[in-house]
């Protein structure tokens, strides 16, 4: 059987493969280059849960001090002594007045370790530092 095409009637078809390839490449690119705020947080720290709807600090220009269960204190992922933390806070206050400080204390840490850090903030004249917590049910 011989099939004939009508030469006057052209069929247009779109090849979507290159478009889909480019779309997936862009998605992978943006996922790889995006900066996720949670990536900057230490997953070993278990925060205290709160059932109330307290405001959560989400500003990007925060100084985050982490207090581990062992009592070790970290700033930018590096272990710091109380004196080093105080010096960092002094420099930050000198550069920018009204800086916000967030303390992420592990719920297994002793209250004294948290108190040492908040005491430094109060002594240097910072407003009450924000205490990070996990949103409970």
Structural overview:
The chain has 137 residues and is α/β, with parallel strands linked by helices. It has a domain at 42-135: 2-Layer Sandwich (Nucleotidyltransferase, domain 5), CATH 3.30.420.270. The protein has three helices and seven strands, in the order H-E-E-E-E-H-E-H-E-E. The protein has helices at residues 17-33, 82-95, 111-123, and strands at residues 49-50, 62-67, 73-75, 78-80, 100-105, 130-131, 134-135. The strands form two sheets. The chain has a five-stranded mixed beta sheet with strand order 4-3-2-5-6. A hairpin with a 5-residue loop joins strand 2 (62-67) and strand 3. Helix 2 packs parallel to helix 3. The model has no long low-confidence stretch (mean pLDDT 78).
- Output the structural class: alpha/beta
Identify the CATH architecture of the domain at 42-135.
2-Layer Sandwich
DSSP summary, beta strand count: 7
Low-confidence stretches: none
Largest beta sheet: strand ordering: 4-3-2-5-6
What fold name goes in the CATH topology slot of the domain at 42-135? Nucleotidyltransferase, domain 5
Distance between the termini: 72 Å
Q: What is the overall silhouette?
A: elongated
The share of residues in extended strands comes to 15-25%
Largest sheet report: 5 strands, mixed
Which percent range fits the helix content?
A: 25-40%
Number of helices: 3
- Indicate the mean pLDDT: 78
Name of the CATH first level of the domain at 42-135: Alpha Beta
Report the radius of gyration as a whole number of Å: 27 Å
One letter per element, helices H and strands E, the order comes to HEEEEHEHEE
């Amino acid at each position: 059987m011989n099939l004939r095409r009508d030469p006057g009637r052209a069929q247009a078809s779109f090849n979507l493969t290159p478009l889909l390839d480019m779309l997936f490449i862009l998605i992978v690119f943006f996922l790889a280059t995006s900066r996720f705020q949670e990536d900057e947080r230490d997953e070993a720290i278990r925060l205290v849960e709160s059932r109330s709807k307290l405001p959560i600090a989400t500003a990007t220009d925060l100084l985050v001090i982490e207090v581990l269960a062992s009592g070790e204190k970290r700033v930018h992922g590096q272990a710091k002594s109380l004196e080093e933390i105080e010096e960092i806070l002094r420099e930050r206050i000198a550069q920018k007045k009204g800086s916000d400080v967030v303390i992420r204390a592990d719920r297994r840490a002793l209250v004294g370790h948290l108190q040492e850090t908040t005491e430094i903030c109060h002594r240097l004249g910072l407003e009450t530092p924000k205490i990070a917590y996990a949103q409970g049910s």
